[in-house]
Amino acid sequence: MDRMSLSSKTRAAQSTSERWMRYLGFPGGILLFLLILYLPAGAGLSASAQAGAACFALALVWWVTEPFPTYLTSLVLMFLLLITRTSEPKAIMDVLGMEVIWLNLLAFILSSMLVKVRLAKRMALWLILKFGRKASWALMAFVIIQMVLAPLIPATAARAVMTLPLMIVVAAIYGASEENNNNFGRNLFLLNLVGISVLSSMTMTGSSANLIAVGLIQTMGGERVYYMDWVRVGAPIAIMATMMMWWLGQKLVFPIAAQDRLPQLEGGLGLVEQQYAELGPLRREEKKALAIFGLVLFLWMTDALHMGWFGVEISAPFAALLGAVLVLFPRYGVMQWAEAEIPWHLLIFSAGAYAGGLALDDTGAAEWGVRMLFGGMDLKGVPFGVSYTVIIAVMMYSHLLTTSKTVRTLILLPIIITMAKALGWPPIAFALPAALCIDWVVGLPISGKPNVILFSTNQYSVADNFKYGVLTCTLGVILLVVSGATWFHWLGLTPSFWAVAP
Amino acid sequence: MKRLFIALMFISSAAGATVIDRYATELDVHADGGSRAMVTLDLKKCQAGRFVLPVGFGGMDRLEVQAAPDGVVLKPVPGKESSTLEIELPPGIAASNSLRFAFAAPDVLGRPKTAAGEKAKIAADTQLLRHTFVNTGALEIGVYELSVQLPGDLRVQKIAEQLPRTKRSEVLPRVRLDRTDDRQGADLQLANMKQGDRTSMVLNVVSARHSYGWLLAGLALSLAYLVGFRSLVKAEPSPESQSAQPS
To answer: Which of A30, A59, A99, A214 makes the best surface tag, with the fewest CB within 10 Å?
Structure first.
C-alpha cells in the first residue's frame, strides 16, 4: 500500500490454456502478419498501409497472448514498422515525445508523490471506511467519482491520472496487485476505464472530438445541436451503460470470489480503521502534496480560460509538468527523482503501441478499413431501424481500428451524414446517435490515452480489456438501438424504426 | 519577357468569361515511365476568344483532338516542366461545350537523379510518380481531377505528398487510391482552383510482386520458437519455462 510497485515482470501464465496461448501466440502472430502481407492488394490500399496493418495485427496477437512482455512486442513492432517501410524512422522515434507519453511519465511522478506522502493511502482508507466495506460498494464509489469528474475535467487522461493512485491503493486493500491479479482489480481498473471514457459522452464538451462532430452536423447536416440536446440523449445512455457494467462486471465478466469481496488486510476492517487512525491529522508533507495536486487539478479544470489569463493554454501535460517541478523542487519539494517510480517499460509499451496506431492512421490503413466497413452496403429501401443499427454498430466498433477519436470522427461522420441524405433520412437522426459513440474507446489498451495509463498498472491483460471493452460497446449498441426506437423517436430525433424512406 | 506577359494577358482575357467547370485527366502510365494523357474539359458560359490552358506535364507531344465543336483550335506549347495549350473558341460557339484531347507525356514515372556520391533518398526498387498542377491560366477551374493508372505489375508503396492538405469541409481525401481492371491507380482532386492555385501529389511506386523473404523468415522464426520454448507447455511448468518469460 505504500509503494506503487510497477515492475517490468511479465504476468505468470496461470492455467494450461494460458500457457498454450502463449506458446501458439508467437507463430499465430507471424501467421497473421504473413496472411495480411501476402493478401492481394485491396483497391485503395497502398503497400505501406498493407504492411502497417500486418505489423499491427502481429503485435495485437502478441499483446493478447503475451509470448513476450508487452514492451518487448512494442519494440519489435517499432522495428517492423521501419523494416517493412510502413513508417519513416523519425515518425517512429517521435512517439516517445508525444503528449500521451509525457502525460504518462508525469502522472507517475504525481502518483508517486501521493503514495509516498501516504495521502493516497489516507484517501483510499477513508473511501473504504465510508463506502467500501464491500467490494461492490467500493466499485460504486469510483463510478460516482468518475461521474462527478467527467463534466468538470474534459481531458480523459487527466481524469485517469488523478484517480490512478486511489485505484492502486484500493486494489491493494482488496488483494489485487501487479503480481497477484484478481477479479476485483480487473473490475476496478476496467470499470474506471469505462467510467472515464464512456461518461465523456454525457456532454458535448466531454471531448474535442464531440465538438468536431457537432460542427460537422451543423456544417454538413444543416442542423444545430445545443448543449442540452446532447445531454438529454447522451447522459442517460452513458450513465446506464456504466451502471450496467458495474453490475455485469462483478457478476458475469469477472465474478469476484467470495473471499475477495472484503478487504484483504490481515485484521480485516478493524485493521483498516486502526491504520486510518494511525495516520493521525494531515502532516505538513501531505498538505504540500494536496496543494500541488490541487493546483494541477485547478489548471486541468480551467483550461478553457487559460488563453484569456495567460495568453497560452496550459494543456494537461504541461499542468502536470508544473506539478512535477514543484514535487521535485530541492528543499521545498516533496520527494527526490529517485523516489519517483516511473515504469519505463510501460512507457516503451505505450510508445510502440502509438507508433503502430499512428502508422495505421498515416498510411491510410485505418481510413481504408473504416470505409470498407460501409463499402458494399446497400441500405436503400430498408427500414430506418436497420440502417440505424448498422451505422451505430460500425461507429461503435470502429474504434478498434484507430487510436484517434478525432480521426474516426472526421472520417465517419461526413460519410454518415452524406449517407443519411442519400437515403432520404434527416442527417441528425443518424449523426447525433453516432456521435454519442465517439468516446466509447474501451476495446484495447491502445484505444485511448486513459487506456494506456490504466493498462500500465499491469492489473489486467489485453484479453481482459478486450472482453470487458467489447461487452461494454455491445451494451452501448443495444442501448442506443433501443433508445433510437423509443425515446429518441418520442423526442423527435429519429423517425419510426419501421419507416422506409420515400 | 514583358511583351510575352502582355500577350498572355491579352490572350487570357479574350475568353475571360468562359468557365472551366471540370478539368479531368486520365493518365495511362506505361512501363517505360512514359504515359498517354486523355483530357476532358467541360466548359460553361463559353465566349469567343483565346485562353491558355495549363497542362501539368512537361514535354507534351503528339496532341490528338478527339472531340471538339467545329472551329475550336487547340495549339500545344510544350514546356520543360509543364506545358500549356492555347485554345481558341470561334464566334457563335454554344454556351456549354466539352472538349476531349489526348497527348503523350514522357517521364512521368522514374527514379530521381542523384549526383555521384550523393546518398540515395529512396529505396533501390522504388520509382516516383510526381505530378504538380498550377493554374497559370486566367480562368477558374471548378474541379481539377487527375486519375493515374499504373502498369499492371506496379503498385503504390505510399502517397509521399498530397497538397494542399484536405480541409475539414472536404469529404474526399486529396489523393485516393483505387483499382481498375487489376491495375492500381490514384485519383487527385481539388475544387475551385483560382489563378495561381496549386495541387500536387508524389507517389512512391514499387513492384506489385511480393518477395518470399518474409515468408521464409517468418516460418523459420516460428519453428525456432516452437522448439526453443516448448518447455512452456510441458505438463508442469518448470522454473525454466517460467523464466523463459523475460523479467
So the answer is: A99
Handedness of CA A273, A459, A299, A284 (dihedral sign): positive
SS3 A26: helix
Whether the Cβ atoms of residue B134 and residue B198 lie closer than 8 Å to each other: yes
Is the backbone of residue A364 left (phi > 0), alpha (psi -120 to 50) or beta?
Answer: left
Interface of A with B in 326-365 (CB under 8 A): 363-364
Q: Is A12 on the interface with B (CB under 8 A)?
A: yes
Between residues A151 and B42, which one has the greater pLDDT? Answer: B42
Size of interface A-B (CB pairs under 8 A): 98
Judged by a CB distance cut-off of 8 A, whether residue A132 touches chain B is no
DSSP A13: P
Q: Give the confidence band of B104 by pLDDT, cuts at 50, 70, 90.
A: very high
β-partners of residue B49 are B89
What is the full DSSP assignment across B64-123? EEEE--TT-EEEEE--SS-EEEEEEEPTT--SSEEEEEEEEE--SEEPPP--TTPPPSS-
Compare B245 and A366 and report the one with higher pLDDT.
A366
Name the amino acid, one letter, at B93.
I
CA within 13 Å, CB half, A40: 7
- The answer to whether the CB of B26 falls within 8 A of the CB of B131 is no
Q: Which residues of A touch B238 (CB under 8 A)?
A: none
Pairing of strands B141-149, B19-29: parallel
Separation of alpha carbons A491 and B189, rounded Å: 41
Strands B97-105 and B35-44: antiparallel
CATH number of B2-207: 2.60.40
Residue B245: its chain A contacts at CB < 8 A?
10, 12-13, 68-69
User: Whole-model pTM?
Assistant: 0.77
Compute φ and ψ for A39, nearest 5 degrees.
-65, 150
Cell of A150: 467527467
Residue of B150, B177, B227 best to disrupt the A interface, most CBs of A under 10 A: B177
Torsion of CA A287, A291, A292, A297, to 10 degrees: 130
Q: What does the alpha-carbon distance between residue B190 and residue B207 come to, in Å, rounded to a whole number?
A: 28
Query: Distance from first CA to last CA of chain B, Å, rounded?
Result: 74
Residues of B in contact with A13 (CB under 8 A): 232, 237, 242, 245
3-state class of A335 per DSSP?
coil
For residues A129 and A276, give the distance between their C-alpha atoms in angstroms, rounded to a whole number: 9
Tens digits of per-residue pLDDT, A26-83?
999 999 999 999 988 777 789 999 999 999 899 988 987 889 888 899 999 999 999 9
User: Rounded to an integer, what distance in angstroms lies between the CA atom of residue A445 and that of residue A463?
Assistant: 10
Angle between helices A183-198 and A462-485 (to 10 degrees): 50
Cβ-Cβ contacts under 8 Å, A212 against chain B: 168
ipTM confidence score: 0.83
pLDDT at position B74 is 93
Which residue positions in chain A have pLDDT lower than 50? 4, 7
**How high is the pLDDT of residue A297?**
82
Question: A85-99 pLDDT, tens per residue?
Answer: 999 999 999 989 888
Q: Are strands B154-163 and B198-207 parallel, antiparallel or unpaired?
A: antiparallel
